[in-house]
User: Which sequence fits this backbone?
């Protein structure tokens, strides 16, 4: 018997009931399955795949083909969680028509249930059109990784009154355009609290304090995987990286010393002379 798939309406109900929403990033079927079986509400196939899995130093080089490939893997690996795919850089900024085609591929080929795009009023026409044709959209405000050069890095956003007012207005516009939720990344907790109260859709925080309707973490940060330093707001629940290194060193030593595979009984074969 298959578990009931979580839908965007379930997330809205959680907000109404005051229940927290849980979300992690996932990039492959194996980890998606583990997260899914653990009871996670949503899996975000983030364009952070560029840095976490593909070795880039930003999200900008990630292509639509990359996202379709990884989204399909995550979708195959999960049976319950809501699968949301990031729309990568330059797949929705050029025109609404191109955004529709790009989002369509993520749903049709990647089997995503929804897409996520960065920005506020600048992308509201895209959000509105995607929702009109039946593609659920999650918004993203605060630090926008695809705009890292314009922002001058990944520093916290919304720290002055003008930025804060703009972000509140953007959140309201996104909700009115039909977005089903908004990620709030690296903004003051007080601002996230205000936005969460001002919109009737769930807010998902990442470095935005405890008052959002839910939280998301980059899974490699949570698990202690990868060589990069995790942001200060990311709690590391385990250091799998050290465990894997230790196991790898043990394997190397066993092979070099002849201990492996000496413990495995050899197959008895007769060689014709």
Assistant:
């Amino acid at each position: 018997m298959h578990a009931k798939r979580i839908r965007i309406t379930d997330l809205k109900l959680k907000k109404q009931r005051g229940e927290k929403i849980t979300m992690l990033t996932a990039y492959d079927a194996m980890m998606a399955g583990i997260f899914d079986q653990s009871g996670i509400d949503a899996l975000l196939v983030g364009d952070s795949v560029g840095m976490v899995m593909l070795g880039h130093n930003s999200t900008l080089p990630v292509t639509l083909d990359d996202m379709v490939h990884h989204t399909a893997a995550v979708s195959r690996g999960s049976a319950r969680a809501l699968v949301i795919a990031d729309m990568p850089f330059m797949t929705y900024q050029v025109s609404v028509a191109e955004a529709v085609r790009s989002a369509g591929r993520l749903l049709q080929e990647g089997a995503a249930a929804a897409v996520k795009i960065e920005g506020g009023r600048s992308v509201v026409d895209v959000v509105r059109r995607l929702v009109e044709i039946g593609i659920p959209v999650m918004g993203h405000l605060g630090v926008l990784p695809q705009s890292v050069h314009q922002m001058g890095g990944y520093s916290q956003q919304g720290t002055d009154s003008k930025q804060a007012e703009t972000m509140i207005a953007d959140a309201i516009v996104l909700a009115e355009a039909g977005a089903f939720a908004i990620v709030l990344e690296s903004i003051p907790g007080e601002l996230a609290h205000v936005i969460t109260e001002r919109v009737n859709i769930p807010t998902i925080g990442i470095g935005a304090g405890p008052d959002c309707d839910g939280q998301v973490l980059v899974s490699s940060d949570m698990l202690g995987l990868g060589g990069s330093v995790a942001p200060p707001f990311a709690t590391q629940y385990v250091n799998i990286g050290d465990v894997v290194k230790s196991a790898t060193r043990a394997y190397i030593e066993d092979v070099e010393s002849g201990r492996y595979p000496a413990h495995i009984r050899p197959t008895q074969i007769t060689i014709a002379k």
Summary: The CA atoms of residues 20 and 214 lie 5 Å apart.
